[in-house]
Amino acid sequence: MSRKPAVTISRLDLERIEALLDRMPPAQAAAHAALREELDRATVLEPAEMPGNVVTMNSTVRFTDEEGGVPLTMTLVYPNAAGKPGTVSILAPVGSALLGLAKGKHIDWPTPDGRKRRLTVLSVEHQPEAAGHLHH
Q: Which of the listed residues 6, 57, 110, 130 has the most CB atoms within 10 Å of its CB?
């Protein structure tokens, strides 16, 4: 597996995602071990310090999945907002993989069936922090 790219997360997103994981039953939380690893190794910044090219919670991101190659545009959301067209939950493998990646970066992410998918961020179409929404 290739070396993992740097990830940057806002302090607010980190606190909210950790609280979400901490409220889960242990067996369910264990299914999100890869997300926990990403949180543990992330560079944490205040929301006002987030670079505008980094995927944060509630960001709309354009990316490719190496297998399909067709660019997708999705908004990274918390589970309670997932299910609408064009959204992906932070708890979904794709959502966990995108969090904290900067434009142009890619990550190899394990899928539930044990394979790896390479996701590449093409652009961050909308980021709440860049738009001045620092408490999303």
A: 57
Per the document, the length of the chain is 136
Write out pLDDT tens, residues 77-98. Answer: 999 999 899 999 999 988 999 9
HSE of 105, CA atoms in CB hemisphere, 13 A? 21
Is 135 inside a domain boundary?
no
132 within domain boundaries? no
Residue 42, in any domain of the structure = yes
Q: How many CB atoms lie within 10 A of CB 10?
A: 25
List of the chain residues with pLDDT < 70: 1-2, 67-68, 135-136
Give dist(CA 134, CA 136) in Å, integer: 6
Instruction: Identify the domain containing residue 13 by its residue range.
Output: 8-126
Query: 87: which strand partners?
Result: 75
> What letter represents residue 9's amino acid?
I
Q: Report the CATH number at residue 79.
A: 3.10.50.30
Handedness of CA 13, 19, 21, 24 (dihedral sign): negative
Indicate the residue type of 59.
Answer: S
Burial of 112 (0-12, 13-18, 19+ CB in 10 A): exposed
